[in-house]
Amino acid sequence: MTDARNRWAAPFGWIARAFRVPGEERRNLVQTTKAAVAAVLAWIVATSVLELPQPFLAPYAAVFLVQATVYRSLRGWAQQVGAVSVGVLLAAGAGQVIPSVTVALGLVVFTGLLVGSWRGFGDSGVWIGVTGMLLISYGSATEPILLADRLLETALGAAIGAVLNAVVLPPLHGERLRAATSRLASAIADVLDETAALVRGGEPPEAADRLHDRMRDVRSLVAEAEDAIDWTREGRYLNLRGRRETREEPLANLVTLWPPLAQLIDAVSEAARSEQPFRHPGEYARGVVGELLEALAAVTRSGDPQRLDRCRELVGEIDHLLVTPTDEVTTSIGLGAMALPARRLVQRLHAD
């Protein structure tokens, strides 16, 4: 009963979040509304202003040009108009020289889809074959006026969709960036805390296996972060609201932590599982490394660069242990294998 109520309430919860939170739900609602408005405007202009007969391509093109970024809308306009133009020319040529509609249809679709596979047309390449097919099947391929109408209504609808998307609340992707930053920072900090516990000896060696599972989760979040950065950069391009977009530098800096973090986990796991030459160093040295990792976790969570001072002090203490052997540092190779990626983590956090 509870599950059924939750399913019925889900759409209302989605709408409530769209109005309450400036997140993905609101962006989707705005884009959907703009697509509907663009379709209506394209239909009104095509029918009432230009008085085009059966201008079904105008609203169709308008809807597809309200895309996720302004750049994609403007690029899509050029690609779509180009694709439809080629489709119209193919249909006109086939209609003039091939008397059989069946043969002309097959040839136009084949040629159109083949030409449309060129990457310069992007996702609009399929329109070459589709436009030619529609014109041939409707018997419009031999009527120049109708061919011109199809091209005009497509250009009109695409232009309305692209302009509306660029002028009215052009889409940004800052919430995706903020969410990816929060998830990745939290995951890296958790892994650093777990690694610190393993270094100190508070976890069994089997914990290294669980740590590697967590690292696969982090790697997935890194891929998500890279995708969010790409969307944010593209969304800012040619966008009238681009200056208001969230900066991607903090997330990009977190992404750079992945290689040294993976190296650190490998060094700690090897030390926890095996004997020489990567045996754990003595208790005091393990405590210093553990404290460093916990401090790095705190910096990652808070984003406070002032906490890095303590991290640098601990890195200096590890360096001192490496060059000043004591009875506790039984294996300097193992400590050195942990120290190098830990140092790189401090350096990359400091670069932010």
Automatic annotation (TrEMBL):
Cellular localisation: Cell membrane
- Note the InterPro entries from the entry: ArAE_1
Could you tell me the keywords of this UniProt record? Cell membrane, Membrane, Transmembrane, Transmembrane helix
The transmembrane residues are 29-50, 86-114, 126-148
* Membrane topology designation: Multi-pass membrane protein
Instruction: Report whether Endoplasmic reticulum shows up as a keyword of the record.
Output: no
Q: Which domain of life is it from?
A: Bacteria
Stated name of the protein: FUSC family protein
